[in-house]
Design a protein that fits this description.
Blueprint lengths: L3 E4 L3 E2 L5 E8 L2 E2 L1 E4 L3 E2 L3 E6 L10 E6 L5 E2 L9 E2 L7 E7 L3 E8 L2 H7 L21 H7 L9 H4 L1 E5 L2 E9 L8 E7 L11 E2 L8 E7 L4 E8 L9 E7 L1
Parallel strand pairs: 1-5, 2-6, 3-7, 5-8, 6-9, 7-10
Antiparallel strand pairs: 3-4, 8-12, 11-12, 13-14, 14-18, 15-16, 15-19, 17-18
């Protein structure tokens, strides 16, 4: 079963040794802690058990030697450590130091990594998830530079109003054009809102096009972007929204 092994003396894993570690959860993982001198050699294999799927941001210490330290002249962390394949955007990183052998999970998806940095795991790290139930998806929390674990005010949801008969939309983002690598767009729709979320079209910036934009530095690390759609809304309907891609 999964558990901790405490070694009070020295620990030597020979070149012929085959050590296997099981990961069964964030707080249920095999771990060897040796208080004496530890020599690491041979091979180490990690497997997932009990249906466990690691999430971005999680770290597992396989072997630790806080006392006399860990030597590993004959062990290559890249070739002698075998790790299970992870799905989606998840990848393993490996760390071998004078005191510990650890593995961590990262994501190539910046939103998943961002959410994981706030302690979120599993489905709660997905781009479309809203774990704090504030009406803002993780993708938008990332683009706005705000926490996906704390409900945020309406200024980050976008505030729509009519100004002199024109529809306008304002939102905040990190100062300097927002988060690096994120493209901020605007979309417009003049038909009825629908459950299929269809009918939105990308709007074009410019006085002779769909909208104009004003950016104001709030002097608190954020800037407010105000979108004013051209043409008065005299009849019918018009909807606007911010879109982000990364």
């Amino acid at each position: 079963g999964v558990g901790n092994l405490e070694v009070l003396g020295d620990l030597t894993l020979s070149p012929a040794s085959q050590a296997t570690f099981e990961l069964g959860g964030a707080a249920s993982a095999d771990h060897v802690n040796a208080y004496g001198a530890t020599v690491l050699d041979g091979t180490v294999t990690v497997s997932l058990v009990n249906g466990f799927t690691p999430s971005a941001g999680q770290t597992f210490t396989l072997i630790s030697s806080p006392g006399a330290g860990l030597t590993f002249a004959g062990f290559d962390v890249n070739t002698d450590l075998s790790l299970p394949v992870l799905g989606g955007s998840l990848l393993w990183t490996r760390s071998l130091t004078a005191t510990a052998l650890t593995v961590s999970v990262i994501s190539t998806d910046p939103v998943v990594s961002y959410a994981g940095g706030f302690g979120l795991t599993g489905a709660d790290t997905a781009a479309g998830a809203d774990p704090d139930h504030d009406g803002i998806s993780n993708a938008l929390e990332y683009a706005f530079g705000i926490s996906p674990t704390a409900s945020n005010s309406a200024q980050y949801r976008g505030v729509a109003e009519t100004t002199s008969g024109q529809l306008s939309l304002a939102y905040r983002r990190p100062v300097g054009g927002g988060v690096s690598g994120v493209t901020y767009g605007v979309q417009v729709m003049t038909s009825d809102l629908n459950s299929g979320n269809t009918g939105w079209a990308d709007a074009v910036e410019g006085a002779l096009n769909d909208y104009t934009k004003v950016v104001v530095n709030n002097n608190d690390g954020t800037e407010t972007v105000t979108i004013v759609f051209n043409g008065a809304v005299t009849s019918g309907k018009k909807f606007g929204r911010v879109s982000v891609s990364y």
